[in-house]
Amino acid sequence: MAEAKELLQVRGLKKHFGGLKAVDGVDLAVRRGETLGLIGPNGAGKTTFFNMVCGYYTPTEGLILLDGQEIQGLPAHAVARKGIARTFQITKVFKDMTVEDNLLAALALKKAPSLFSSLGRSHTRRNREQVREYLEQVDIVAFAKVKAGDLSLGYMRRLEIARALALQPILLMLDEPCAGLSKDATRDFIELTQKLQAAGTTIMLVEHNMAVATELCHRMTVLAHGIKIAEGTPQEVQNNRAVIDAYLGEAEEAD
Length: 255
Known about the structure:
Elements: E1 6-17, E2 20-31, E3 35-39, H1 46-53, E4 61-66, E5 69-70, H2 76-82, E6 84-86, H3 99-109, H4 115-118, H5 125-137, H6 153-166, E7 171-175, H7 183-198, E8 203-206, H8 210-216, E9 219-224, E10 227-232, H9 234-238, H10 241-254
Parallel strand pairs: 3-8, 3-9, 6-7, 7-8
Antiparallel strand pairs: 1-2, 1-4, 4-5, 9-10
């Protein structure tokens, strides 16, 4: 049987918090090897959508299929073991641990049910070799012995991506990875993501910075008020009247 083109399929996904419809009937698909951008103004439902796909929220309604298998409602650790790894808008590295130990913990968690039961078994020669490979992939080998909390925000984001890659995901989900980054750090992130793309990594990206999303994404899905309002190539999305109105409305609210 031929392998399905879509790695992730989402059908009719909804998340209601009381009377608030944070996500309301969204359909989308992520194709193998592509980078799909999930964009939209503040409050559009992007992170809520991410949290459902990753198992942090249980959908009110809808299907989430990863490689043809239903995963909606599974807890986050089970979704991670199915092959989805994510980063967060606010970095969640272990700041009191070294960069190397952050990666060793990620490798251990892939095989063990809890961090504390696995750390003692993580410091094998093979694991250390793997850690170096992941650190080289995100270009932070020089910081292996540095405490994660002492890194700049840009390097913390690289570490978080390295930890996600250590889970050997089939889908990498990045939530606002450029939030708070300087112009130089944002350019570094773009170059790192392009390296991952060249290696065939399938990526889903939430990004508020339209310039970043345009440079990195093959296609974009646009949410506004929890509803999908547009989908297509970056050029198609940028020229879509509904998208222009949604972003103009956000700018007017900020004035």
